[in-house]
Amino acid sequence: MNSSSGDEATLNEVLEHCNDLRLAPIPDVGSLPERYTGTLGHFPVYFPEEIAHAAGLLPVSVLGGGNRLELKHADARMGSFVCSICRSTAELGLNGSLNGLTGFITHPICDAAKHLAGIWARNFPEQLSEILYLPQNVNSPGAVRYIAAEFQRLRGELEKRSGRGVDDDALRHSIRIYNQNRRLLRELYALRRDEPWKLSCTESYLLTRARTRMPCEDHSVLLERALAAARRRTLPSQDKPRVVLVGGFCEQPPIEMLEAIDSNCHVVDDDLLIGLRWITADVPEKGDPIWQLAESFVERSAASPVQHDERKTKEGYLMEMIGASKADAAVLTAAKFCEPGLDEQVAWAKHLDGTNIQYLVLEFEEKMTSFEQMAMQLETFAESLLFAVAA
Amino acid sequence: MTGKAVGAAANIADTAAAFDGRIEGQRLMRDWYKALEEAPARGQHVANVFVMGNAVEILRAFDFQLVFPEINSLQTGVRKTSEEYLRLSEDYGMSPDVCSYVKADVGLILKEHEHPAGRIPRAHIAIASNMCSTFIKWAEIWERLLKTPTFVLDLPGQRAGNWRVRPGDAQHAADARWVEAQFQDLIHRCEAITGKRFDLDRLAEVEDRVNKMVAHWNNVMALNRVCPAPYNAMLDGLTYIGIMNVYRGTPEGVAFMRNLEAQLKTKVARGEGRVAEERYRLLFSGTPCYVSMRRLVELFETWGGVFAYSDYLTFAAGGMDAGDLAYDTSRPLESLAEVTALAAQRGLSNQFFAHERLAQQIRDYAVDGIVFHGIKSCRFVSSGMADTRDYLNKRLKMPSLYIESDLIDPRYWSDAQIKNRVDAFFETLRQSGGAPPAGKSVPPATGRAA
């Protein structure tokens, strides 16, 4: 075996493992590494995983049920007009798949997500179930202090549930581990931006998503292996348009949809799993760790349709993504029944109408299983872009 | 009683008897729309606000003319013109699956602010709280289309079930401190927009009026615990909360609520109910369907069913009825933050744990059943509704009905289907012997002095 095929085999092995994790249930408490006493579920978008990590609770993102879950209970508990990820998350709770969680934390990203805390309180009173009230105003003086108080409250709750005190040193240790992971994720995205033929959007997504089912330190080891192998890949550059993909900040687009996009475009940036990449630089490892996490939420953070920030208009950050990644075009997606996503899709499209940047509008649902029409749209879009560039 | 006192009491009774909350409410709403139309000519600054978490007290202290876009949108429904606005916004690109209030407002913008009630002025500032997440997306649309400066007021809500925050405890203090910090920021922005210095005494004056309105409003709500209920929470009540919002902190608002309470007390004293023969006391959970509300209420009233309470009257009136909330006008700004933080948790964001409030209101209003009105364009009220219903059915054995339509989109109103479901609900109630044939005796409410 030459080194090139060895790298490919390594990457394939890692990706296969990541895909297995994507389809796997939440880890069983008995299977957790020794330092963990339980799992803490959290809903998109951002959650300060460092606090759970320091408390010995494995943070696991609850990302809905994908397109293989049959809804047997949730249909009767949530209206048909609610987005798929909220309904399938409720289903996972009601069908017992999340029984092992120590708790489930949701966020004020939208009203349907907030209602999940009520559903949890009514149906799973034995679990910690909360809305972590991250502020929608990060611009007024006092925001960091408020977030720090909210994180401190969370710290206290998790200490009670895990039976383990979380001192500042433990938190700093967790911050260091996550900083390392954030650096690797930034490298992953830099590779896609600079040499997109070496790592597809689907592959990058699988690699990133693996963190939702494994300890962060293990995920960093996995990322290092994958990155090293991907960098050495000798795949030729392909004649595909460079696009930015947005709209996957909460509900997860089906993997088949990402593959269809990859087949036609180089996705040079995206907002998939943006919550795992929310903090965009290292969290300072000295000083009060809770304060540093809170300040990082305000000062070193990404953007999404579900976070208001006067410094980051939605059109502004899309244009920054397009500019920084030298994209030719954008794929504007929104999950069906996702109010923030659907509102933003209109805003983005109207804004791009005023530029010479082409875009494609797609609506998806995590549970969708037919992709032929979408693939055809993407093919047509990509062709039109290539012809436009050639002309 | 002296002759003078007898005369005064007779005058009050006469005034109360002459007062008609619905007619007076409609007059006040017309006046408000006129004031909106004339605001630019007066050179008055204009603020867009929502009904939940809106800092109205601060804005009034700066003499802003207040626009309530939700009320504008619902009024297009009441006036049977909403479909035109909705279609305009859908043609523009808005999804059929988003809030119809937002879409009607986008339609209004596309129609150059021409509303069936008059021309709506453009705002100099918009306040959007996080109590309904759609408020923020809505305000971002104004930022985008109208360049309206927006202030997002972040109110820490109820975090979990069985959440108990008491005035002055550490959690409340932390939340109130954050709210006050934002109010300080808002005040600076209002000073920059209006060129006026903030006046704490003005704020205290407004708060004093709000206190009076809230005290009357709480008594008005409590009066409907009496059987027969003197008003229908989902018809008359909608007018009342319109005034609670639009005239909050004004002399007109205080007078309206005072007269309303007096009138309803008179009705209660006479044993007059909203319906001739009250047979079923009901609780309405959710938002109205403004295009067909009168029809919906009629479907229930023909069976002798009256909505004694609705959670809409709580959250859509600012949540101030939820437990002894009154401003301390000797420290107006601090108190505003403290009460706002409490109202957000006890009266607004507790919608996400609706079973707790509803269980209490079922007891307080001695209802025979709950009607849940789910609407696809309002996730704030509807997303957890079916699960709440299931919980209350199991725990309290409370009969319930679930119907679906929309806030203002007439395309989602299916008269025959809803009538069938309402009739079937009452048949079930009747057969199960849910309520005595001529209503039931409920102890009179104990009101609080305003």
Question: Can you characterise this structure?
Answer:
- The complex is a heterodimer of chains A (391) and B (450).
- With 391 residues, chain A is α/β, with parallel strands linked by helices.
- Helices cover 48% and strands 11% of the residues of chain A.
- In chain A, α1 (3-23) runs antiparallel to α8 and α3 (84-94) runs parallel beside α4 (111-123).
- Chain A starts with a helix and ends with a helix.
- By secondary structure, chain B is an alpha/beta fold.
- In chain B, the strands form 3 sheets. Chain B has a 4-stranded parallel sheet with strand order 2-1-5-6, with helices on both faces. Chain B has a 4-stranded parallel sheet with strand order 8-7-9-10, sandwiched between helices. In chain B, strands 3-4 form a two-stranded antiparallel sheet.
- In chain B, β7 (280-286), α12 and β8 form a beta-alpha-beta unit.
- In chain B, α4 crosses α6, α8 packs across α14 and α9 packs parallel to α11 (251-270).
- The longest helix of chain B has 25 residues, at 170-194.
- The chains are: A alpha/beta (391), B alpha/beta (450).
- At the A-B interface, α4, β4, α5 and α12 of A face α7, β6, α8, α16 and α17 of B.
